[in-house]
Amino acid sequence: MNKAFYIVLLFLLFGNQSIFSQEIGDAIKAKDTLKSKEIDPLRPSKAAFYSALLPGLGQAYNKKYWKIPIVYAAIGTSMYFYIDNNKKYNSYRDAYKRRLAGFNDDQYQYLDDSRLIQAQRFYQRNRDLSLLVTIGFYILNIVDANVDAHLIQFNVSDKLSFQPDVYMNDIDYKPNLGLTFNYKF
User: Fold this and answer.
1) What whole-number distance in Å separates Cα of residue 97 and Cα of residue 114?
2) What are the pLDDT digits (tens) for 15-33?
3) How many other CB atoms are found less than 10 A from the CB of residue 106?
């Protein structure tokens, strides 16, 4: 009878608590520490369109304001050389045309006809090259805005890591260089 009394006493003490433990209370809720940003698939195309419309506008759309002076310096410098070489080319061409017409009163009286032709070719080649460089910088501006908009949405987290590793060889105790690739679920 002594055993039965202790068993009943245990059921009364611990049975009551198990009933209370089944009650739903305010549980501690874990907050998501990684806030995922919504991916906008049209963002790169918008940035490229804005950069094509006005150079530097795509960089402003991506909030990379420090790139805008670089874009304008590159395009502006190549445009300056295009305009300068075009003026000199037209000047030598007009002087050569006047020589063919029989006039000899131009600013290049000290040059003969072959030198005028050579100067025309030189400035024409430089003008064309400056135009290609200008177009190249314009395209580079568009590509930079597009790639930058893609990389803004790139998720960099600590779950994926790739790092160099130096470890000792077990046989001859020489250091070996390796790469470790870690992925955490």
Assistant:
1) 13
2) 555 444 445 555 555 555 5
3) 16
Q: How many CB atoms lie within 10 A of CB 49?
A: 16
- Per-residue pLDDT, 18: 46
- Which residue type occupies 110? Y
Which one-letter amino acid corresponds to residue 63? K
Write out the two tokens for 106: 């131009």
User: At CB < 8 A and 24+ separation, what contacts does 51-60 make?
Assistant: 51/141, 51/142, 51/144, 51/145, 51/146, 52/142, 55/138, 55/141, 56/141, 58/141, 58/142, 58/144, 58/145, 58/146, 58/148, 58/149, 59/141, 59/144, 59/145, 59/148
**Which pLDDT value is given to residue 181?**
75
Collapse the DSSP code of 180 into the 3-class scheme (helix H, G, I; strand E, B; otherwise coil) and give the result. Answer: strand
pLDDT at 15 (0 to 100): 59
Q: Pick 161 or 80 by higher pLDDT.
A: 80
Residue partners of 117: CB distance under 8 A and separation at least 6: 96
Please, what's the b/e burial string for 162-184 (b: 16 or more CB within 10 A of its CB; e: otherwise)?
eeeeeeeeeeeeeeeeeeeeeee
